Fold:
Amino acid sequence: MAMPDRNQTQVPLEGDPLARYSRQIVFGKIGAEGQEKLREARVTLIGCGALGTVIADTLVRAGIGFLRIVDRDYVELNNLQRQVLFDERDVAEGAPKAAAAAEKLARINSQVAVEAVVADAHSGTIETYSDGASLLLDGTDNFETRFLINDVAVKHGLPWVYGACVGVTGMVMPIIPGKTPCLRCIWEQPPPPGLSPTCDTAGVLAPVVHLVASLQCMEALKILMGRVDELNRRLVQIDAWSGCFDSFDMQDALAAGACPCCSRRQFDYLDARSGGRTAALCGRDAVQIGGGHEATIDLPGVAAKLAPVAKSPPQVNRYLLRCKVERYEITLFRDGRAIIKGTSEPDEARSVYARYVGS
Structure:
């Protein structure tokens, strides 16, 4: 018997559009009123890797009205161990994570509007991506972007939920500007490079990803339904291997009034306004270069230029170009941003970019 084509247009589901949420609505703290508030909610998710895919999957199934997914990366084989919205076809196609996630989510719940933004969330773009959102969610893998999310959230009074995991440990904390400590109340500066474990040095197991993302979603649902008084306002720390959960009351950090962000209104990360930064990518032996141009790159034109020097014909789709030159793999996006794989040195990556893409 032939299997149906997964790309065929789906037949619209008949019956009560709320039927899919019946087990959710029957829970007293949600009900029909809470479900309607979820339907009206608009969420921006920054990062669609391990945490981000679980968050996106959970909230779309819960019936939020709109989800904007912002992610700069593409799907690789080692993502499949923990990033639940992707499969081997996405790896073969070099699909951008945001676009691949949006495609899957559309098949899960066509009632939810999902916007895929294949771009880097940096100081020059994050306010645009946050515009109109009722909540920001942290699906990132680095402190710099989290501090950027914190800046834009505090500046515009947007709630957000911090989440992080590595190895078998994780942390979660909801942040309501002015009412709970912000991220810089607790950590005024990111930890120095090399001090904290990363996925490259400690790995990461899928169960802790699901635990952290699920706790983020639980607090997100409370915020989106207006049940802010029922938030768990403590910093929760998880050790999935031992099954231990600890929580810490951080409210004194806000009361101290010394935070440069929420007390003194200094938005150091947001005010950097740098769209052309260089960043080494965690555990990837890769560096991200620049991007953020207003004009779009002619990807087929660049592919034709690289073809004579590439080890194999460059691969191009409407989002990106991929090719191998020398010992490097170059992934070039339409906004001029590139990921140079084969080095962790920013200067070397910039040189490769200039040599093969242009200045």
